[in-house]
Amino acid sequence: FVNGKFCKNPNLTVADDFFFQGLNIPQSTDNKVRSLITGVDVNKMPGLNTLGVSVARIDFAPNGVNPPHFHPRSSEILMCMEGELYVGFVLSNAFENRFITKVLKPGDLFAFPLGMIHFQLNIGKTPAVAFASFGSQNPGLITVGNAVFGANPPIGPEVLIKAFQLDKKTIDYLQSQLWFNNRI
What we know:
Strand order of the largest sheet: 1-2-9-4-7
Binding site for oxalate: 66, 71, 76
Pfam families: Cupin_1 (PF00190)
Number of helices: 3
Largest sheet: 5 strands, antiparallel
Number of strands: 10
CATH architecture of the domain at 23-144: Sandwich
Family: Belongs to the germin family.
Oligomer: single chain
CATH superfamily of the domain at 23-144: Jelly Rolls
Distance between the termini: 25 Å
Protein name: Germin-like protein
Keywords: Apoplast, Disulfide bond, Glycoprotein, Manganese, Metal-binding, Secreted, Signal
């Protein structure tokens, strides 16, 4: 095992281990968040094992969002290819949770440091496309709302009431929602 994956005998590797096609194909954004991520990591492209890289295509409908999330094993650099994206991340508690943000146009790059909660929102009137590169063969993805309010089994409301300073009715409502996973 290396990073949780079996290393394939190099004598048995084939070109398809190092090949993926389809990132040029737009994906449907007809969902709750109006975005869809096509990720290519070691699970979809075995040849990435031990290389420390992976990529993703993110399609956005107008007003589509890639909700607040973080990658526990990687930093990310995002390139806006089409449209106009409002992006940002929140620094850690040690830096007073300062919010770092920018509007990206085609050709612009923005970096998200390892483990920082970040998002992207299409603020344009047309669809947007971005490509993300990660410094890990398996960056992982934890979408904050899904993890907190869609946990299975649910996190006890007494914890969430105190943590978010909300009433039980609001917590019950948030936990009753179907939290969408926008990654394929």
